Amino acid sequence: MVGALRGRDFLAVADLTGADLDALLDLAADLKRGRDPGLPLARRSVAMVFLRPSNRTRVSFEAAIHRLGGHPIALFDREIELGRRESVSDVGRILDRYADGLVARIPSARDLVGLAASMEHPVINAMTDSGHPCQILADCLTVREVRGDLAGARVTFVGDGNNVCNSWIEAAAVAGIELRVVTPAGYEPSERELSRMEELSPGSRRRVLVTNDLDLGLADTEVIYTDVWTSMGQEDQHEDRRQDFGPYQINEGVLGRAPSGVRVMHCLPAHRGEEITDAVIDGPQSVVFDQAENRYWVQLALLAAIFSPDQT
Ligand code: CP
Ligand code: NVA
Question: By CB distance 3.0 to 4.6 Å, which of 155, 181, 229, 238 could disulfide with 223?
Answer without folding.
Answer: 155
